[in-house]
Amino acid sequence: MPLHLLSDELYFPPADQALPEGLLAIGGDLSVPRLLLAYEQGIFPWYSHDDPIMWWCPDPRCVLFHRKLKVSKSMRNVLNRSNYEVSFDQHFDEVIAACAEIERKGEDGTWITEEIKKSYISLHELGLAHSVEVMMDGELVGGLYGVSIGGMFFGESMFSKRSNTSKIAFIHLSRILEERGFLAIDCQVMNAHLASLGAINVPRKDFLSLLSEAQEKPTLKGNWQELLN
Questions:
Q1: Fold of 4-58
Q2: CB 59 within 8 A of CB 19
Q3: Whole-structure pTM over 0.85, yes or no?
Q4: Strand 54-56 vs strand 44-45: parallel, antiparallel, or unpaired?
Q5: What does the angle CA 16 – CA 18 – CA 22 come to, to the nearest 5 degrees?
Q6: pLDDT the model gives residue 134
Q7: Can you tell me the distance from the alpha carbon of 51 to that of 111, in angstroms, rounded to the nearest whole number?
Q8: What is the DSSP code (8-state) at residue 68?
Q9: Most exposed residue of 130, 160, 196, 214, measured as fewest CB within 10 angstroms of its CB?
Q10: CB 208 within 8 A of CB 15
Q11: Between β-strands 54-56 and 23-27, what pairing exists: parallel, antiparallel or unpaired?
Q12: Where in the chain is the domain with CATH 3.40.630.70?
């Protein structure tokens, strides 16, 4: 399958034309219209600082169905403590910056470039990208951010500065999204952290079918701290 090179035209090839590792296209830009078109088709950007923009739609796809969320006994004990607060969309810029800065085992540097930050902050200002924050003693200690379209939340990145705080954010998000009728959280690519929370791999064709169903639901657009309380 040939690799697609994008131009200024607002277009993506069909997701099932991706290479075996999931790479679909190179080039284009990170404008809001292109990002929204990408997410609507199950495609997301992921590339290193010195690389061109790369667009992916892996097969299989990592997904968290809310009913399959796993909360271990030890994690339940963490959640039952009263030493933290969870909020939405109160510190988006700080969350994406923390996700870019946090050191990750087995990774050299970050894929969250200044260009990525700027584009997702623009999505946030439009009420389409959202953050979940975990605060302790007035300090941002964990969280995540992603994009919401219809009944799907597309998770992008998470971070922890204290033990289990990204899990606190993820679990709170999943529970609230389930209450609101969201179908799933797109986790993109499986890792041990996501597997411990109940995420599973599904065939790409099944994910794209789920995404189509999710887009029949209205998008919860705006500041989620106001809309979810």
A1: Alpha-Beta Plaits (3.30.70)
A2: no
A3: yes
A4: antiparallel
A5: 115
A6: 98
A7: 10
A8: G
A9: 196
A10: yes
A11: antiparallel
A12: 62-227
Alpha carbon distance 104, 36 (integer Å): 28
Q: State whether the Cα torsion 214-215-216-220 is positive or negative.
A: positive
pLDDT at position 109 is 43
Of residues 202, 172, 175, 164, the one with CA closest to residue 186: 202
Q: Are 78 and 86 in contact (CB under 8 A)?
A: no
Supply the pLDDT for residue 104: 56
Task: Give the Cα-Cα-Cα angle 2, 157, 17 (nearest 5 degrees).
Answer: 15
Start-to-end CA span in the chain (Å): 47
Per-residue pLDDT of the chain (229 residues; tens, 9 = 90+): 678 999 999 999 999 999 999 999 999 999 999 999 999 999 999 998 889 999 999 999 999 999 999 999 999 999 999 899 999 999 999 999 999 998 755 444 468 999 999 999 999 999 999 999 999 999 999 999 999 999 999 999 999 999 999 999 999 999 999 999 999 999 999 999 999 999 999 999 999 999 999 999 999 999 999 888 7
Q: Phi, psi at residue 202, to the nearest 5°? A: -125, 150
Start-end of CATH 3.30.70.3550 domains in the chain: 4-58
User: Is beta strand 23-27 parallel, antiparallel or unpaired with respect to 44-45?
Assistant: unpaired
Q: Report the topology of domain 62-227.
A: Aminopeptidase (3.40.630)
Give the SS3 label for residue 174.
helix
Please identify which residue in the block is written with the tokens 């389930």: 178
Q: Strands 61-64 and 200-202, how do they pair?
A: antiparallel
Q: Which two tokens stand for residue 229?
A: 């309380």
| Lookup result for tokens 């933290």 | 84
